[in-house]
Amino acid sequence: MKLKPIQHTFLKRLAAFYSSEEINAFYYELIEFYFGISRINLALNPDVEVDDASKLNEALKDLEAQKPIQYIIGETEFYGLKFKVSQSVLIPRPETEELISWIINDCKDASAKINILDIGTGSGCIAVSLAKNLPNAKVYALDVSAEALKIAKQNAELNHVDIEFIEDSILDVKHSKLLSEDLKFDVIVSNPPYVRELEKELMKPNVLENEPHLALFVDNDNPLLFYKAITNFAVNKLYKNGSLFFEINEYLGQDMKALLNLNFNEVELKKDIFEKDRMIKGVLK
Ligand SMILES: C[S@@+](CC[C@H](N)C(=O)[O-])C[C@H]1O[C@@H](n2cnc3c(N)ncnc32)[C@H](O)[C@@H]1O
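The joint structure predicted for all components is written out below.
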């Protein structure tokens, strides 16, 4: 079966939802994923044929239903690494890569071993990227979702890093390791759920209908629920001068600054590439 007519079908059936650039990007990504044919090879051999195009037709139906391509193929790229994803985990976002660069830059000259904890690890994208780039770090990663932790463990294996995973809720910590006085951290990082229910209407249906709500939403009347719990935890579990890093809701930068100022020095708010308040750091007093 020739591929060219299938590309035309993609362009026609998806035109109501996506730009032609986006549709072509999906198409080429799928061809590479299912048949191992790169975009450049396809351009060089436009009449190339495949035996069975059924997977492409299935993917087209999923795209029409606005399923994100990362869930269709079950993987994505993040911080230059490959990650498996399922609908139990949030698709890692580019903004989070900026947070990771900040942490790596801060920690790269540490001569001694450092302990890092990632709270709400999801796919493990933060924990795995830090472990991969900070050979001196012992990385721990926590999530309340057993399904998310399964994926995160696969991602640690896929990327050949050793991470200690913990299943627990940061809102009600029970795990003996985390309660133990013996374990303290140099760095705690979290990208917790931070989207208020009232912001739902600003979100695209492909996010709302496919990504796990456990990873996204907080009540309108307590949007800093996770940040408050994590800062309280960090006050007890960071070494003195240890650092707390958060990804944050762009609308809550000033509230986050006020929260961190209570117990942290050198509080620094940073914008993402879209000029939105997106991450914050504090150093424990
Ligand atoms: C915004 S996602 C972040 C996922 C990943 N760290 C990333 O940056 O892409 C938030 C994560 O927090 C987890 N989570 C939600 N409630 C939690 C709780 N009470 N304790 C620990 N983790 C929780 C969710 O399962 C989800 O994986």
